[in-house]
Design brief:
The complex is a heterodimer of chains A (523) and B (57). By secondary structure, chain A is α/β, with parallel strands linked by helices. In chain A, the strands form five sheets. In chain A, strands 16-17-15-18-19-20 form a six-stranded parallel β-sheet, sandwiched between helices. In chain A, strands 11-10-12-13-14 form a five-stranded parallel β-sheet, with helices on both faces. In chain A, strand 12, helix 10 and strand 13 form a beta-alpha-beta unit. Chain B has 57 residues and is α+β, with helices and mostly antiparallel strands. Chain B has one domain: NAD(P)-binding Rossmann-like Domain (Rossmann fold). In chain B, strands 1-2 form a two-stranded parallel sheet. The chains are: A alpha/beta (523), B alpha+beta (57). Chains A and B meet through helix 1, strand 4, helix 5, strand 5 and helix 6 of A and helix 1, strand 1, helix 2 and strand 2 of B.
Amino acid sequence: MITRNVVKKNYYSDSVTLMLLSSKIGKMAGVKEAAVMMATDHNKELLTRSGLLLPEGRTATPNDMIIAVTAEDEKSAEAVLQAVEEYFAEEGKSQAGSDEEMVTTKTQATALRLLPGANLALISVPGRYAAHEARKALDNNLHVFLFSDNVTLEEEKELKEKAAAKGLLMMGPDCGTAIINGVGLGFANAVKRGSIGLVAAAGTGLQEVTCLIDKLGGGISQALGTGGRDVKAAIGGSMMLMGLRALAADPATRVIVLISKPPEEAVLDRLTEAIKAIDKPVVTCFLGARVDVAGEKVYPVRTLQEAALKAVELSGMAADRAASYFMSDNLLQQTAAAEAARFGGQQKYLRGLYSGGTLCSEAIFLLEPLLGSVYSNVALDPEYLLPDPETSKGHTLIDMGEDYFTDGRPHPMIDPGYRVERLRREALDPETAVILLDVLIGYGSHADPAGALVPAIREAKEAAAAAGRYLSVVASVCGTPADPQGLEQQEEKLREAGVIVMPSNAQASLLAAAIITSCASTR
Amino acid sequence: MSSPNDLFNQPLAVINIGLKIFAEALQAQAVPCVHVDWRPPAGGNPDLLAVLARLNS
């Protein structure tokens, strides 16, 4: 084995670009491990842990880029270094060639001069610099969508107070999704416009509900994100309250949906008060808890699917027409029994591998009462918190977008590589019966997530068959026909690989549970 | 004083600061957008940054 480090002085590229590049070079012939990173202290620590950092890399500064590789031989290492150089040379060329299409500049101030009608800033710089950029944007009277995480609670509070005083939206930090005037920001889907307005402290929750509304024939007026910490007492639900008031005053919005993890009590009181003052139906979905907000026009629901169904009903669609989109209970049970009949003797566990955090929470919430114990890296109950996120235990649901998995690695919505690896591992476990997956498409997501999963699914099913087992794979695709990846195309790819594709994450979870319980009852 | 409701009545025009994938997504949706090819201020040097922050305040 040979390890090489090359330091590119004063060379910068964003973390997503570098993580995707790292993932690509890591798969080259003869390569054991490889990474391209900005030489921040944290990244150097990550490189040290994987044995990739040499003394020459240690001297690099945060303004430098490190290319690090461990390979079987000099030739393989050299090929990686060359591939990285070629990548940046190519990127330089394509940037120079696409100037006409994408106007690019160096500072926010110049950008404002180039786009005098700008009304929103989408900020995704590293966390420690994010508040500074957001502050500048608010000073320039821009509404803000702040994707960056690792912003302190104090900074969030300050930014939200500043925004509120100016009547500006401050969506985030850690805001994954919004749809404003039909435009998707961050990770969002191409949904039809309509009369349902949403405000959510849960990124993939907002994606699932807007997509289900679209699939059920409804449409979206506005979908606002707040960032997950907005409902903490320290922030006081500031953006959630502003969003509710804006949707209440918006003539295009006839029904409002609120999605969040259970807020802290003081925040819930403020939200309840605001909701009661709204003269429009409000559907409330506090995932993971039964929080009943009293009020004549308030409709508390428990899951993302119920939120979408209730919203389209309230917007005027016949309930039975909307409900017919989902699989009937009868068919679900029959499908489960047919799958369960094919298992080998030892197979009994469900393993869910999620890229969407809120989708994972919805699945945990639905499965716990059905399966008894469900272990997870994001379990609320410490008893069911996995001691090691890399190792499943009993029935396990993993949120692979959680910080542990995304430290130095791309989010699974952008690059499914590590999820594919985990899927292979889970399939080798003779006790695994069902694999449960979410597939998120839309703007910002991987160009073909189903296509990336399918080879591993096929291999896993074949390996299980060769060992006298049957591996059941259940999935749902969060997306719409108008998304760049295409909903039908993604679903079809999964079906061709033998995956049972369900209409929603909730139904995928329920089917997975029914397969497990049906299997247990026939033994 | 601005308001989110004013924004709901205007065509969106976005300044994207940071990840290029989001500017590309806006471009795919035909939204007017300027991309800021962001670099860490002070070359990412924490000591220099602290000095700059003091000067700015």
